[in-house]
Protein backbone atom coordinates (compact mmCIF):
# COMPACT_ATOMS: atom_id res chain seq x y z
CA UNK A 1 0.00 0.00 0.00
CA UNK A 2 1.27 3.48 -0.79
CA UNK A 3 1.59 6.01 2.02
CA UNK A 4 -1.48 7.14 3.88
CA UNK A 5 -1.45 10.88 4.47
CA UNK A 6 -3.56 11.88 7.47
CA UNK A 7 -2.01 15.27 8.24
CA UNK A 8 -4.22 17.46 6.09
CA UNK A 9 -4.68 20.11 8.79
CA UNK A 10 -0.93 20.73 8.45
CA UNK A 11 -1.15 20.96 4.69
CA UNK A 12 -3.00 19.41 1.75
CA UNK A 13 -1.83 18.13 -1.61
CA UNK A 14 -2.17 20.73 -4.33
CA UNK A 15 -4.93 19.79 -6.77
CA UNK A 16 -3.54 19.11 -10.29
CA UNK A 17 -6.15 21.48 -11.80
CA UNK A 18 -4.95 24.23 -9.46
CA UNK A 19 -1.36 23.67 -10.52
CA UNK A 20 -2.43 23.72 -14.16
CA UNK A 21 -4.16 27.10 -13.66
CA UNK A 22 -1.01 28.48 -12.02
CA UNK A 23 1.55 27.21 -14.54
CA UNK A 24 1.24 29.96 -17.18
CA UNK A 25 2.00 32.57 -14.49
CA UNK A 26 5.26 30.83 -13.67
CA UNK A 27 6.27 30.38 -17.31
CA UNK A 28 5.03 32.54 -20.16
CA UNK A 29 2.92 35.12 -18.29
CA UNK A 30 5.61 36.22 -15.86
CA UNK A 31 4.96 39.98 -15.87
CA UNK A 32 4.99 42.12 -12.75
CA UNK A 33 1.43 43.37 -12.09
CA UNK A 34 2.79 46.84 -11.30
CA UNK A 35 4.31 47.20 -14.78
CA UNK A 36 2.29 49.17 -17.29
CA UNK A 37 3.34 47.19 -20.39
CA UNK A 38 1.33 44.29 -21.79
CA UNK A 39 3.14 41.64 -19.74
CA UNK A 40 2.37 43.61 -16.59
CA UNK A 41 -1.23 44.23 -17.59
CA UNK A 42 -1.83 40.50 -18.13
CA UNK A 43 -0.45 39.71 -14.68
CA UNK A 44 -2.60 42.49 -13.17
CA UNK A 45 -5.66 41.05 -14.90
CA UNK A 46 -4.96 37.63 -13.35
CA UNK A 47 -4.59 39.14 -9.86
CA UNK A 48 -7.75 41.24 -10.09
CA UNK A 49 -9.84 38.47 -11.66
CA UNK A 50 -8.74 36.19 -8.82
CA UNK A 51 -9.59 38.83 -6.23
CA UNK A 52 -13.06 39.21 -7.71
CA UNK A 53 -13.58 35.45 -7.68
CA UNK A 54 -12.50 35.12 -4.04
CA UNK A 55 -14.72 38.06 -3.01
CA UNK A 56 -17.72 36.54 -4.79
CA UNK A 57 -17.13 33.16 -3.14
CA UNK A 58 -16.87 34.70 0.36
CA UNK A 59 -19.54 37.37 -0.17
CA UNK A 60 -17.58 40.57 0.21
CA UNK A 61 -16.30 43.36 -2.06
CA UNK A 62 -13.07 42.66 -4.04
CA UNK A 63 -11.49 45.77 -2.51
CA UNK A 64 -11.78 44.07 0.90
CA UNK A 65 -9.49 41.14 -0.07
CA UNK A 66 -5.74 41.59 0.56
CA UNK A 67 -3.39 38.84 -0.56
CA UNK A 68 -0.57 37.88 1.81
CA UNK A 69 1.98 35.08 2.11
CA UNK A 70 -0.32 32.88 4.23
CA UNK A 71 -2.21 32.48 7.47
CA UNK A 72 0.67 33.52 9.71
CA UNK A 73 1.18 36.81 7.90
CA UNK A 74 -2.57 37.52 7.74
CA UNK A 75 -2.91 37.06 11.50
CA UNK A 76 0.14 39.24 12.16
CA UNK A 77 -1.16 41.91 9.81
CA UNK A 78 -4.63 41.93 11.38
CA UNK A 79 -3.42 42.11 14.98
CA UNK A 80 -0.40 44.34 14.61
CA UNK A 81 -2.09 46.80 12.26
CA UNK A 82 -5.15 46.94 14.52
CA UNK A 83 -2.97 47.97 17.46
CA UNK A 84 -1.01 50.46 15.35
CA UNK A 85 -3.85 52.01 13.35
CA UNK A 86 -7.01 51.48 15.39
CA UNK A 87 -5.53 52.23 18.80
CA UNK A 88 -6.53 48.85 20.24
CA UNK A 89 -5.50 48.64 23.91
CA UNK A 90 -7.11 45.31 24.88
CA UNK A 91 -7.19 41.99 23.06
CA UNK A 92 -9.57 39.20 24.02
CA UNK A 93 -8.56 35.75 22.78
CA UNK A 94 -8.23 32.12 23.92
CA UNK A 95 -5.33 29.96 25.03
CA UNK A 96 -5.96 27.48 22.20
CA UNK A 97 -5.33 29.85 19.30
CA UNK A 98 -2.71 28.92 16.71
CA UNK A 99 0.73 30.27 17.60
CA UNK A 100 0.40 32.74 14.71
CA UNK A 101 -2.19 34.53 16.88
CA UNK A 102 -1.04 33.55 20.37
CA UNK A 103 2.59 34.58 19.96
CA UNK A 104 1.62 37.77 18.14
CA UNK A 105 -0.74 38.73 20.94
CA UNK A 106 1.97 37.94 23.51
CA UNK A 107 4.45 40.04 21.57
CA UNK A 108 1.97 42.96 21.50
CA UNK A 109 1.51 42.54 25.24
CA UNK A 110 5.26 42.55 25.91
CA UNK A 111 6.26 45.29 23.48
CA UNK A 112 3.21 47.51 22.99
CA UNK A 113 1.61 47.46 26.42
CA UNK A 114 -1.54 45.70 25.21
CA UNK A 115 -3.67 44.03 27.89
CA UNK A 116 -4.66 40.47 27.00
CA UNK A 117 -7.68 38.67 28.41
CA UNK A 118 -8.19 34.95 27.79
CA UNK A 119 -11.73 33.68 27.61
CA UNK A 120 -12.50 30.58 29.69
CA UNK A 121 -12.81 27.22 27.98
CA UNK A 122 -15.30 24.48 28.77
CA UNK A 123 -14.00 20.93 29.43
CA UNK A 124 -14.36 20.01 25.73
CA UNK A 125 -12.33 23.16 24.87
CA UNK A 126 -15.29 25.07 23.48
CA UNK A 127 -15.46 28.79 24.24
CA UNK A 128 -17.42 29.79 27.34
CA UNK A 129 -19.68 32.35 25.67
CA UNK A 130 -21.06 33.59 29.00
CA UNK A 131 -17.54 34.40 30.14
CA UNK A 132 -16.84 36.13 26.82
CA UNK A 133 -19.92 38.25 27.34
CA UNK A 134 -18.82 39.14 30.90
CA UNK A 135 -15.32 40.00 29.70
CA UNK A 136 -16.60 42.27 26.94
CA UNK A 137 -19.05 43.96 29.30
CA UNK A 138 -16.24 44.61 31.80
CA UNK A 139 -14.13 46.14 29.00
CA UNK A 140 -16.94 48.21 27.51
CA UNK A 141 -15.06 51.50 28.00
CA UNK A 142 -11.86 50.19 26.37
CA UNK A 143 -10.78 49.87 22.77
CA UNK A 144 -11.04 46.09 22.37
CA UNK A 145 -10.37 43.57 19.64
CA UNK A 146 -11.65 40.00 19.88
CA UNK A 147 -9.72 37.32 18.02
CA UNK A 148 -11.02 33.75 18.20
CA UNK A 149 -10.24 31.10 15.62
CA UNK A 150 -13.17 29.65 13.68
CA UNK A 151 -11.91 26.05 13.96
CA UNK A 152 -9.13 24.85 16.18
CA UNK A 153 -6.40 23.20 14.11
CA UNK A 154 -5.59 20.53 16.71
CA UNK A 155 -9.00 19.62 18.10
CA UNK A 156 -11.34 20.75 15.36
CA UNK A 157 -13.57 22.70 17.77
CA UNK A 158 -15.73 25.25 15.96
CA UNK A 159 -16.58 28.68 17.32
CA UNK A 160 -19.92 30.31 16.50
CA UNK A 161 -18.51 33.43 14.85
CA UNK A 162 -21.95 34.92 14.29
CA UNK A 163 -22.59 34.85 18.03
CA UNK A 164 -19.16 36.33 18.75
CA UNK A 165 -19.78 38.97 16.07
CA UNK A 166 -23.10 39.93 17.63
CA UNK A 167 -21.44 40.36 21.02
CA UNK A 168 -18.68 42.45 19.43
CA UNK A 169 -21.31 44.66 17.78
CA UNK A 170 -23.19 45.03 21.05
CA UNK A 171 -20.08 46.12 22.96
CA UNK A 172 -18.45 48.06 20.12
CA UNK A 173 -15.41 45.75 19.79
CA UNK A 174 -13.40 44.95 16.70
CA UNK A 175 -13.68 41.33 15.51
CA UNK A 176 -10.97 39.28 13.80
CA UNK A 177 -11.01 35.54 13.22
CA UNK A 178 -8.36 33.07 12.11
CA UNK A 179 -10.45 31.08 9.62
CA UNK A 180 -7.46 29.21 8.18
CA UNK A 181 -8.98 25.80 8.91
CA UNK A 182 -12.48 26.61 7.65
CA UNK A 183 -12.12 28.68 4.46
CA UNK A 184 -12.53 26.15 1.64
CA UNK A 185 -14.18 23.68 4.03
CA UNK A 186 -17.42 25.53 4.75
CA UNK A 187 -19.55 27.89 2.67
CA UNK A 188 -18.57 31.02 4.60
CA UNK A 189 -20.53 34.22 4.14
CA UNK A 190 -18.54 37.13 5.52
CA UNK A 191 -21.63 39.31 5.90
CA UNK A 192 -23.27 36.76 8.19
CA UNK A 193 -20.12 36.09 10.24
CA UNK A 194 -19.94 39.73 11.32
CA UNK A 195 -16.14 39.81 11.22
CA UNK A 196 -14.11 42.88 10.33
CA UNK A 197 -10.97 40.90 9.61
CA UNK A 198 -10.57 37.27 8.62
CA UNK A 199 -7.45 35.23 7.72
CA UNK A 200 -7.13 32.36 5.24
CA UNK A 201 -4.41 30.23 3.65
CA UNK A 202 -4.58 28.33 0.34
CA UNK A 203 -2.51 25.28 1.28
CA UNK A 204 -5.21 24.13 3.69
CA UNK A 205 -7.67 23.55 0.83
CA UNK A 206 -5.55 21.99 -1.93
CA UNK A 207 -4.01 25.26 -3.06
CA UNK A 208 -0.33 26.23 -3.07
CA UNK A 209 1.75 27.11 -0.03
CA UNK A 210 2.92 30.67 0.55
CA UNK A 211 -0.30 32.44 -0.39
CA UNK A 212 -3.05 33.63 1.91
CA UNK A 213 -5.45 36.50 2.33
CA UNK A 214 -6.80 38.85 4.90
CA UNK A 215 -10.32 40.18 4.55
CA UNK A 216 -10.47 43.74 5.89
CA UNK A 217 -13.90 45.37 6.04
CA UNK A 218 -14.00 48.51 3.96
CA UNK A 219 -13.49 51.73 5.85
CA UNK A 220 -11.72 50.09 8.78
CA UNK A 221 -8.63 52.22 8.21
CA UNK A 222 -5.88 49.61 8.49
CA UNK A 223 -2.48 50.37 7.01
CA UNK A 224 0.10 47.67 6.57
CA UNK A 225 2.99 46.51 8.68
CA UNK A 226 5.43 45.99 5.78
CA UNK A 227 6.78 49.09 4.10
CA UNK A 228 7.83 49.15 0.46
CA UNK A 229 5.98 49.54 -2.84
CA UNK A 230 2.32 50.40 -2.55
CA UNK A 231 0.95 46.99 -3.55
CA UNK A 232 -2.40 45.81 -2.18
CA UNK A 233 -3.41 49.45 -1.73
CA UNK A 234 -0.43 50.04 0.52
CA UNK A 235 -1.61 47.45 3.05
CA UNK A 236 0.77 44.69 1.95
CA UNK A 237 3.85 45.91 0.14
CA UNK A 238 5.81 43.52 -2.07
CA UNK A 239 5.42 42.20 -5.60
CA UNK A 240 2.31 40.06 -5.76
CA UNK A 241 2.65 36.27 -5.90
CA UNK A 242 0.67 36.12 -9.14
CA UNK A 243 0.74 32.35 -9.63
CA UNK A 244 -0.09 31.85 -5.94
CA UNK A 245 -3.02 34.27 -6.15
CA UNK A 246 -4.37 32.46 -9.22
CA UNK A 247 -3.89 29.17 -7.31
CA UNK A 248 -5.70 30.53 -4.25
CA UNK A 249 -8.78 31.53 -6.22
CA UNK A 250 -8.84 28.33 -8.29
CA UNK A 251 -8.45 26.11 -5.19
CA UNK A 252 -11.20 28.00 -3.36
CA UNK A 253 -13.53 27.80 -6.33
CA UNK A 254 -12.96 24.05 -6.66
CA UNK A 255 -13.25 23.39 -2.92
CA UNK A 256 -16.57 25.22 -2.67
CA UNK A 257 -17.95 23.73 -5.87
CA UNK A 258 -17.44 20.17 -4.60
CA UNK A 259 -17.96 21.01 -0.91
CA UNK A 260 -21.05 18.93 -0.14
CA UNK A 261 -19.68 15.75 -1.73
CA UNK A 262 -16.28 16.13 -0.06
CA UNK A 263 -17.81 16.98 3.28
CA UNK A 264 -20.06 13.89 3.22
CA UNK A 265 -17.11 11.68 2.27
CA UNK A 266 -14.71 13.08 4.91
CA UNK A 267 -17.41 13.00 7.61
CA UNK A 268 -17.88 9.30 6.89
CA UNK A 269 -14.12 8.74 7.32
CA UNK A 270 -14.08 10.74 10.54
CA UNK A 271 -16.99 8.79 12.01
CA UNK A 272 -15.35 5.50 11.08
CA UNK A 273 -12.11 6.52 12.76
CA UNK A 274 -13.96 7.66 15.90
CA UNK A 275 -15.75 4.28 15.97
CA UNK A 276 -12.39 2.47 15.81
CA UNK A 277 -10.96 4.57 18.61
CA UNK A 278 -14.04 4.29 20.79
CA UNK A 279 -14.08 0.50 20.40
CA UNK A 280 -10.51 0.49 21.79
CA UNK A 281 -11.51 2.88 24.60
CA UNK A 282 -9.19 5.56 23.25
CA UNK A 283 -10.77 8.94 24.10
CA UNK A 284 -11.34 11.52 21.41
CA UNK A 285 -10.56 15.11 22.47
CA UNK A 286 -12.59 18.22 21.83
CA UNK A 287 -16.14 18.85 20.76
CA UNK A 288 -18.04 16.33 18.68
CA UNK A 289 -20.53 16.29 15.81
CA UNK A 290 -21.47 19.59 14.19
CA UNK A 291 -19.46 21.49 16.78
CA UNK A 292 -16.26 20.10 15.31
CA UNK A 293 -14.45 20.47 12.01
CA UNK A 294 -15.24 17.35 9.94
CA UNK A 295 -11.61 16.91 8.87
CA UNK A 296 -9.96 16.50 12.30
CA UNK A 297 -9.86 13.74 14.95
CA UNK A 298 -7.66 14.20 18.02
CA UNK A 299 -7.19 11.24 20.34
CA UNK A 300 -5.42 10.72 23.68
CA UNK A 301 -3.57 7.42 23.65
CA UNK A 302 -2.61 5.46 26.78
CA UNK A 303 0.24 7.39 28.36
CA UNK A 304 2.77 4.55 28.47
CA UNK A 305 5.84 3.34 26.60
CA UNK A 306 3.77 2.27 23.56
CA UNK A 307 2.57 5.81 23.09
CA UNK A 308 6.08 7.20 23.02
CA UNK A 309 6.81 5.46 19.74
CA UNK A 310 3.33 5.32 18.19
CA UNK A 311 3.65 8.34 15.92
CA UNK A 312 7.03 7.12 14.68
CA UNK A 313 5.81 3.56 14.24
CA UNK A 314 2.81 4.80 12.25
CA UNK A 315 5.22 6.71 10.03
CA UNK A 316 7.35 3.60 9.51
CA UNK A 317 4.17 1.67 8.71
CA UNK A 318 3.36 4.29 6.05
CA UNK A 319 0.93 6.54 7.90
CA UNK A 320 1.55 10.29 8.33
CA UNK A 321 -0.26 11.80 11.31
CA UNK A 322 0.73 14.49 13.72
CA UNK A 323 0.72 15.82 17.17
CA UNK A 324 0.84 19.57 17.41
CA UNK A 325 1.59 17.51 20.17
CA UNK A 326 3.74 14.61 18.96
CA UNK A 327 3.03 11.47 20.92
CA UNK A 328 6.46 11.52 22.43
CA UNK A 329 8.21 13.23 25.27
CA UNK A 330 10.94 15.71 24.44
CA UNK A 331 8.99 18.28 22.49
CA UNK A 332 7.02 20.95 24.32
CA UNK A 333 3.75 19.07 23.96
CA UNK A 334 0.54 20.66 22.79
CA UNK A 335 -0.42 24.04 24.29
CA UNK A 336 -3.97 23.32 23.14
CA UNK A 337 -4.34 20.01 24.99
CA UNK A 338 -2.58 21.50 28.00
CA UNK A 339 -5.10 24.37 28.02
CA UNK A 340 -7.92 21.86 28.56
CA UNK A 341 -6.10 20.28 31.48
CA UNK A 342 -4.91 17.06 29.80
CA UNK A 343 -1.43 15.68 29.41
CA UNK A 344 -0.03 17.43 26.34
CA UNK A 345 2.22 14.53 25.36
CA UNK A 346 0.04 11.55 24.46
CA UNK A 347 -2.31 12.81 21.79
CA UNK A 348 -2.29 12.41 18.05
CA UNK A 349 -4.16 14.39 15.44
CA UNK A 350 -5.45 12.62 12.35
CA UNK A 351 -6.71 15.02 9.72
CA UNK A 352 -8.38 13.96 6.51
CA UNK A 353 -9.05 15.35 3.06
CA UNK A 354 -11.01 14.43 -0.03
CA UNK A 355 -8.02 12.32 -1.14
CA UNK A 356 -8.36 9.82 1.71
CA UNK A 357 -10.29 6.56 1.39
CA UNK A 358 -12.24 4.20 3.65
CA UNK A 359 -9.55 1.56 3.05
CA UNK A 360 -6.95 3.91 4.45
CA UNK A 361 -8.96 4.49 7.62
CA UNK A 362 -9.47 0.72 7.92
CA UNK A 363 -5.72 0.21 7.66
CA UNK A 364 -5.10 2.84 10.34
CA UNK A 365 -7.71 1.17 12.56
CA UNK A 366 -6.07 -2.21 12.03
CA UNK A 367 -2.67 -0.87 13.01
CA UNK A 368 -3.92 0.91 16.12
CA UNK A 369 -5.81 -2.22 17.15
CA UNK A 370 -2.66 -4.34 16.81
CA UNK A 371 -0.69 -1.78 18.76
CA UNK A 372 -3.05 -1.50 21.71
CA UNK A 373 -4.64 -4.97 21.71
N1 LIG B 1 -3.85 29.44 11.70
C1 LIG B 1 -4.23 28.16 11.76
C2 LIG B 1 -5.47 27.80 12.49
C3 LIG B 1 -3.47 27.16 11.14
O1 LIG B 1 -3.85 25.89 11.21
C4 LIG B 1 -2.30 27.54 10.45
C5 LIG B 1 -1.43 26.52 9.82
O2 LIG B 1 -1.10 25.51 10.42
C6 LIG B 1 -1.95 28.89 10.41
C7 LIG B 1 -2.74 29.81 11.04
C8 LIG B 1 -0.72 29.36 9.68
O3 LIG B 1 -0.96 29.38 8.30
P1 LIG B 1 0.26 29.38 7.26
O4 LIG B 1 0.86 28.03 7.31
O5 LIG B 1 -0.40 29.68 5.94
O6 LIG B 1 1.18 30.46 7.68
Describe the structure.
This protein has 373 residues and is α/β, with parallel strands linked by helices. Helices cover 41% and strands 12% of the residues. It has twelve helices and eleven strands. Strands 2-8-7-6-5-3-4 form a seven-stranded mixed beta sheet, with helices on both faces. Helix 6 links the parallel strand 5 and strand 6 (174-178). Pyridoxal-5'-phosphate binds at residues 70-72, 98, 100, 149, 153, 178, 180-181, 201, 212.
Present the secondary structure layout.
Elements: E1 4-5, H1 16-22, H2 38-58, E2 65-68, H3 71-86, E3 90-93, H4 99-112, E4 115-118, H5 129-138, E5 144-147, H6 161-171, E6 174-178, H7 190-193, E7 197-201, E8 212-216, H8 242-257, H9 259-279, E9 296-300, H10 305-316, E10 319-320, H11 335-339, E11 347-351, H12 358-372
Parallel strand pairs: 1-10, 3-4, 3-5, 5-6, 6-7
Antiparallel strand pairs: 2-8, 7-8, 9-11
Helix pairs in contact: 1-8, 2-8, 3-4, 5-6, 9-12
The structure holds pyridoxal-5'-phosphate.
Residues 70-72, 98, 100, 149, 153, 178, 180-181, 201, 212 line the site of pyridoxal-5'-phosphate.
